[in-house]
Specification:
Layout: E1 2-7, E2 10-15, H1 23-40, H2 55-62
Antiparallel strand pairs: 1-2
């Protein structure tokens, strides 16, 4: 799905990617995709990445509280 919306005088493309995979595969995909997106961003053209998942899978992505210290 691709959409163009006007945002503060500029046209900005909205891209939505919908995929359904097992949770472990999604974690691997996110780990591979985020560094690629980060390498191509600059201060003027930032992007937002949103992940919609069932709350029962959130812990696998976020990790445990004691692992962040």
């Amino acid at each position: 799905m691709s959409d163009t919306r006007k945002e503060s005088g500029r046209h900005k493309a909205l891209r939505v990617l919908t995929q359904v995979y097992p949770s472990l595969m999604i974690i691997g995909l996110v780990e591979n995709i985020l560094p690629l997106i980060d390498d191509t961003q600059d201060e003027q053209d930032k992007c937002t990445i949103r992940l919609l998942m069932h709350h029962s899978h959130g812990g696998a992505l976020i990790g445990r509280k004691d692992e962040h210290q």
